[in-house]
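protien #1 (seq + structre)
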Amino acid sequence: MNFDYELVKKILKLKKEKNAIILAHCYQNIEIDEVADYIGDSLYLSQMAAKTNAQIIVFAGVYFMAETAKILSPEKKVLLPSLKSGCLMADMINIDQLRDFKSKYNNVPVVCYINSTAQVKSESYICCTSSNAVNVVKSLNTKDVLFVPDTYLGNYVKNQLNNNVNIITYPGYCPTHLRITPKDVLKMKEKYNDAIVLAHPECHSEVLKLADYIGSTKGIMNEAGKSKNKTFIIATEIGVVDRLKRDLPDKEFILVSNKAICPNMKHHHLEDIYNALLYEQHEIVVDENIIEKAIKPIQRMIAIN
């Protein structure tokens, strides 16, 4: 892989001078890993940043991730290298739409996927990630739950709990994961008959039925690492495949579909990281009242893990 190593050196030098930390989500362009302090899922990255004494957080991810980092580290300056990096699923629900959704179901708790805006978090009871969603819903010990914004993750949780909880999902979804079809999986399984399928729960339920393992980004990567199998069909964003190929060169990883690319996740490049640090630009600001409300559902989630 070709990197601009002179630019990498400049970023590392600038990062040290400014007491900054760089976070990279697993869907980012793999070049970002060259300067990142932590690489992983969005919540993990925000938690790691909060534990450091860094004054500046540069978040190579999408907008809601940078907001989550700001919620957990309100005293730090959080920068998003490119403001183009939004999230179509997170944008499918705003605070007014959530209030309207809640108004139809009296006193039903809202479980909010971490892939959501700060405002939506502030209007929810508890957050969840794709790896802990089942445990979060189970912990509520209630027969009804509102789940926002991802209907497919919500339905996956419902199936895992054998329909013992009535999960009412908001009709949001991840366009990238929905571009993965059952036909794509079957085609790859036929071509690579020794491969096992690792899928993200944001995929369509018919895709998940064909998977050998269903889990979060981190879960998929961990499963690939510990599995004795040598060939894997990966049903999630291409960034995961890029990193698995780099980190586990003795195994074969096949992207289930060339359509499994999130364009919003690909806006950040090394030059954007450098400019964000140099000019301290594209700062993410979250209203103090929203932070005060939004941190509570995150804390409730962390408390049950």
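ok now protien #2
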Amino acid sequence: MTVGSLPVSVLILTLNEEVNLEACVAALAGCDDVVVLDSFSSDGTAALAERLGARVYQRRFDNFAGQRNYALEHIPFQYDWVLHLDADEIVTPALRAEIQRVIAEGRFDAFRIPSKMMFFGRWLRYSGLYPSYQVRLGHRERLRFRQVGHGQREDLPPERVGTLEAAYLHYSFAKGLSDWVDKHNRYASDEARETVRALADRRGVDWGGLLAPDAMRRRRALKGLSVRLPFRPSLRFLYMYVVRLGFLDGHAGLTYCRLLAFYEYLIVLKTRELRTGQAPAAGEGASR
């Protein structure tokens, strides 16, 4: 991908993303090194990627960090900088321009990028927790990832990671509600395992991080605290809908906050199942 005069390769992870892939690649118009790492999709994703001009590789999915690290270590990218995307994410013109500027400055090895959650045709400005960040742009030889819960984190010192202002658009519901529920059921299993590990960590909560100036550290500290709180599904809803002003997102915000409370409930139930070796009885655990 050439942003201005600076070269950047793009890596897109896919699994049955025929519905989303064309829009993702179209937003990268003019890019000359788009790579799709496909997890053996059963639809037409791989063939579509080739028709769109992408180089296609395939690997069985283990986790997000594993996929991204495999690509960085085994795929010959044309350029030193790699932009990491999922197929339901869209790069905006503002983001392209900022990528050009920060790479030219050469101050960091990787960059956090905010995302805008899109739902019911609108941006969830409040309930989408904007700005929430993930490291998605990095030097191919300096950036590696480690898996945490269902997602990945950068394996770099914080001082080597910069933060961009422009966001990409995230269409998490583009394949429908059933797909979102299936996906978050899997994510809840990953988060439950991570919660069990966090509860066993003697270091406990990063209390200082709750007030740290670094937004990423604050968010991670808050997550470390939240797994130890009672009534988590209810608290998640109140935090998103009231504290974070999700009600200002209208009906879409209300629906999304309810879905996140449901997701939190799944994590609670699966955590209890892992810790006790027993599945909870029907109706049990809703307030925990």
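DSSP finds eight helices and 14 strands in the chain.
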